[in-house]
Structures are given as structure tokens and as C-alpha cells.
Task: structure prediction
Amino acid sequence: MLNFMKNFRNDEDGAVTVDWVVLTAAIVGLGIAVLTSVGGGTTALGDKISSSLSAATIATY
Result:
């Protein structure tokens, strides 16, 4: 039992897992922040392109 507790205390695999989880959460959070900040501009641009294309005419000869 004492040997098990010593090995458990010295094992660092859990710490590496926590590091990866925190890093992944930070990347996902950054991605969501970028999508939120850019989303309004892309919607407005899409609306402008849509209205421009719907007003366009095709010349036939």
C-alpha cells in the first residue's frame, strides 16, 4: 500500500492531461471569440453582395 501511494504521488501523467485540456479550452475559446467578432461583418458583407447580385442584369446580344 505504501509503494502504491508513493507511485501515485510521483506520477505526472495527470498533470500533462490537465495541461492539454486547458490548452484546448483556450484554443476553442479564442476561436469562438474570433467568430463572434467577425460574424457581424461577414453577415453585412454577404447582404451587400446579395443585393448587388440581385440588382445586376445580364446583357444578351
